[in-house]
Write a structure and sequence with these properties.
75% of the residues lie in helices and 0% in strands. The protein is rod-shaped, with a radius of gyration of 24 Å. Helix 1 (11-59) packs antiparallel against helix 2. The chain has helices spanning 11-59, 66-96. The protein is mainly alpha-helical. The chain is built from 2 helices and no strands. The relative contact order is 0.12.
Length: 106
């Protein structure tokens, strides 16, 4: 009895090679796209963390300056909005290129 792929013993290998190449092309495209956003994302994430700790520090004062907390909160929210919209732009561009936002579409 002859198995279906006995006619071409390389079939599996060729397919695997093609998939690996496809995956590495995707990886290249993913990294190219992500690198356009990575600096801004890490800058905004750092700003957000700094703002959070600033707010926490202010709230632990013996006499909390609530006006300052309010101002810091609104600064924090605008950083968060910018970060969210940057991630949204990244996702949109990845979608246009058939890549997922969580690494590579297999």
């Amino acid at each position: 009895s002859v198995k279906f792929n006995d006619r071409n013993p390389n079939r599996g290998h060729n397919e695997k090679y093609r998939n690996d190449r496809h995956r590495s092309d995707n990886e290249k495209r993913y990294n190219q796209i992500y690198s356009r956003y990575s600096d801004k994302i890490s800058y905004l994430e750092t700003s957000l963390r700094n703002k959070d700790s600033e707010i926490k520090r202010e709230k632990t004062q013996r006499r909390v300056n609530w006006r300052r907390v309010e101002r810091l909160n609104s600064e924090r929210n605008s950083i968060k909005r910018e970060l969210d919209s940057t991630y949204a732009q990244l996702r949109k561009e990845l979608d246009r290129n058939n890549l997922t936002a969580y690494g590579l579409r297999r």
